[in-house]
Amino acid sequence: MILIEKIADYIIQEQTRQFAPSTIHHAKRAVIDWFAAMYPGSVQDPNPMLRAAFIEAGDPQQSIVFPTGDYSTIKTAAFLNGASAHTSEFDDIFRDGGLHPGCATIAAALAVAQKYDLSGEMFLRSVIAGYEVSSRISAAMGRDHYRFWHTTATIATFGAAAAACLLLGLNRPQTAHALATSATLAAGLQQAFRSDGMSKPLHAAHAAETGVMAAIAASKGVTGALDVLEGPAGMGAAMSGNADWRKATSGLGKIYNIEAITFKNHGCCGHTFAAIDGLLFIMQDAQITANDIANIAIATYGPAVSITDRVDPKTPQECKFSMQYVLAHAAHYGSVRIEAFEAERMADPAIRAMLGQIDLGIDPAVDAEFPARRAAHVSVTTKDGRQLTHYQPTRKGDPDLPLSDDELDAKFIELANPVLGNELTNSLLQKLWQLDEISLATALDFAVLKGDRTAGKNLPN
After folding, report:
1. Which end of the chain is less congested by CB atoms within 10 angstroms, N or C?
2. Number of domains the chain is built from
């Protein structure tokens, strides 16, 4: 059997499977985290620009664009909400595949489920299917894929397609062809975030839109090349030198990767997290402040160095992907949250003075464990000559050091409240925890700005 057909069989089975309570619970966690990341992203560039560009007067009443409550086509809503969910750098991660699964999968699922007024339970089913398919394909493509390609841009497309196929009730051949079409349209280069620019959120946007488009097209009979993954000129050959397609179906329907998702505890590139956590541990353990630090040395894995070694970042995009900046910010302010990338904070003289005192290097042993482990050795030299060291084996938020439900709730309230306001934020959070028992529309009634129920200060243009 061709690989895509095996994956299609799995998606069909998820339409009626009796899930374990733990799987449903983690799906709700993923949705809550998606909204938490989406709201601050929705009011940051380029998202007000994208809404102005793509929402047109007279758009059909199909799917909501957050947070404004405008309606648009299914494809456009998936595109715009996918971009918003990936902008603030607070969206979730499947660690073993280097993938942000939620931004595109949930954006696509929301767009399709709204159109057909589906239940919250069916929506959660589609999210689970999207996470399981995309996470396994990302693991199968391996580290070699991540040299040049942005996995979220390429592989999240399959999550969006899987979710859309399930919600549309596509049969096995239609689902397989939707996945095949998704594969040939998958794209997104790492250079988009290694240099300054606004293209990175468009990766998630494109993945969400492409997955939805492929599913709708397949529902009308459009076919794709079913061997597009493992064929001699397929995705594996073109975009990974050593794809292991056994991983694409290993444990499918038995082990649920959605129960092992990383929820970010910092609002920046995930490759910096182990170093941030390690630095904060040292500072708390030794009872020192940023003013006591003469030098910081980080020894970690290769991509953490090649992607985040930026000693003079200027823009929010550059600062989010600068190990030096986020460490200096954490040293001075104790965290890296939304306010870390405001203009005044990025220009803080104390932070800027510390950037040149932070050195990065690759530790071969740590590098060998990437991507399954994201670790860092942190060494701090104090101004009075002490050498303080710590090995940080994982990141706060990773499945082996997870955010609790209470911590996830706090993250949601922190990030959603400035956009939605207190009343809507608390009501929406309550409804999202009840998604398996209510209609999706009931929850989304609290997810958009309406009338005088607005926070006001952060409204998009």
Report:
1. C
2. 2
